[in-house]
Amino acid sequence: MPNAIVLTGYGPPEVLKWAAVPLPEPGEGQFRIKVKAAGISPTDLALRAGYLRNAIPLPADAVLGFEAAGTVDAVGPGVTGTSTGDAVTALLFSLGGYAEYAVALIWTASQSPFRGSMQPRCPAPPRRPSVSSASFTSRAAKRCCCSAAADPLASLRRNSRSPRGST
Q1: Dist CA 162 CA 80 (whole Å)
Q2: In a domain, 167, yes or no
Q3: Whether residues 16 and 72 fall in one domain
Q4: What residues make up the domain containing 61?
Q5: Per-residue confidence at 62, pLDDT binned at 50, 70, 90?
Q6: 129 and 51 inside one domain
Q7: At 83, which CATH number?
Q8: Is 0.70 surpassed by the pTM of this model?
């Protein structure tokens, strides 16, 4: 039996418990993900704290998590374009990302930019390029094998390292 982080009540993080849960089975137009990474969104935090209990009532022992990434473990009827073993990311409208296995609707998923090992397909650019950031970014985007530059936040990290008051 797989495990999940189960919400035992509303409140601080201590209301989350690691517990055995039934293995979810994919239905029509759904697939099951063997979760390797789950996102923690502000909505998850608000749900856990109870701020949204009237707007989004949760069943007892709910498993939070709107975002999950991993590999397809099983596909339900009517699923095309995705097969067992594919790396995917998915938005989980019915929650469940804080588990070893989650079920997603096929239209909420995309091929993941990560392989089964969850390593990026593209090598990250050097931390401190020797050329200007504008020309480096365009060169990195040209040799990158995915649609985005290898490290779109690199310039933000470089700028945050500069001493205060310097220009």
Answers
A1: 49
A2: no
A3: yes
A4: 3-111
A5: very high
A6: no
A7: 3.90.180.10
A8: no
What token pair was written down for 22?
Answer: 């039934």
pLDDT at 110: 67
Q: Dihedrals φ, ψ of 70, to 5°?
A: 170, -150
Same domain, 87 and 22: yes
pLDDT in tens, 24-59: 999 999 999 999 999 999 999 999 999 999 999 999
Residues 71 and 93 in one domain: yes
Of residues 73, 66, 75, the one with CA closest to residue 30: 75
At 97 the pLDDT is 96
Non-local CB neighbours of 83 within 8 Å, separated by 6+ positions = 72, 75
pLDDT attached to residue 82: 86
Taking Cα atoms as reference points, which of 92, 65, 90 lies closest to residue 7? 65
Say how far apart CA 145 and CA 138 lie, in whole Å.
Answer: 13
Helix intervals (H) in the chain: 42-49, 133-143, 154-160
